[in-house]
Design a protein that fits this description.
The structure holds two protein chains of two kinds. By secondary structure, chain A is mainly beta. Chain A has no helices and eleven strands. In chain A, strands 2, 4, 5, 6, 9, 10 and 11 form a seven-stranded mixed β-sheet that branches. Chain A is globular. In chain B, strands 2, 4, 5, 9, 10 and 11 form a six-stranded mixed β-sheet that branches. Chain B is globular and about 45 Å long. The relative contact order of chain B is 0.34. Classes of the chains: A mainly beta, B mainly beta. The interface between A and B is medium-sized, with 20 and 20 residues.
Chain lengths: 114, 110
């Protein structure tokens, strides 16, 4: 079974803090993704990566950055957390290269920024 | 503009009452359509991938179908444990972008 794990299920941070969300997948997938999910807005893509050290902006990259130093690990960084970044953050991975296939999701991190 | 629309937003059924969820899409160059199930506070769980019109896939009480404009997720004789949000996503366009619908919240009453 594909396994995608995220470092925290729940996280509480203060405005202005730097926040790291970690995601690890164990299936040697090339593609990894970070989404946020908000009521009424659905899933929105923040960043994705097709390979180690590669990253591409999704639909809402502002206020976020990512790092992919190893194939299995994809980190999402909130440089200076703000209250409007309170959300559920979901990491996903998929096999193959640019021809994206089925995405497998982690359990999510619910982030609250005070 | 590429779009994925799911209907209804929410659906309440009695246990055993069969129904269908709809996912309509307007995209150029569909490469695949995906169905996911999401339980509260958890990540989406993959159910099906459909690639071409006329294709059908089944898993237990769920059956997904695809036409050139929409997909249906048919639920036959549902049980309370089928209660969840069901998400549809399409992969399309020159950049193989994946677009998610907003989901249908399904509640099965015992």
């Amino acid at each position: 079974d594909v396994k995608v794990t995220q470092s925290s299920r729940y996280l509480v941070k203060r405005t202005g803090e730097k926040v790291f969300l970690e995601c690890v997948q164990d299936m040697d997938h090339e593609n990894m993704f970070w989404y946020r999910q908000d009521p009424g807005l659905g899933l929105r893509l923040i960043y994705f990566s097709y390979d180690v050290k590669m990253k591409e902006k999704g639909d809402i990259p502002e206020g976020y950055s990512v790092s992919r130093e190893k194939k299995e690990r994809f980190s999402l960084i909130l440089e200076s957390a703000s209250t409007n970044q309170t959300s559920m953050y979901l990491c996903a991975s998929s096999p193959q290269g640019r021809n994206q296939e089925t995405q497998y999701f982690g359990p999510g991190t619910r982030l609250l920024v005070l | 503009e590429d779009q994925v629309t799911q209907s209804p937003e929410a659906l309440r059924l009695q246990e055993g009452e069969s129904s269908s969820l709809n996912c309509s899409y307007t995209v150029s160059g569909l490469r695949g359509l995906f169905w996911y199930r999401q339980d509260p506070g958890k990540g989406p769980e993959f159910l099906f991938t459909l690639y071409s019109a006329g294709e059908e896939k089944e898993k237990e009480r769920l059956k997904a179908t695809l036409t050139k404009k929409e997909s249906f997720l048919h639920i036959t004789a549902p049980k309370p444990e089928d209660s969840a949000t069901y998400l549809c996503a399409v992969q399309a366009g020159r950049d193989d972008k994946i677009i998610f619908g907003k989901g249908t919240r399904l509640h099965i009453l015992p």
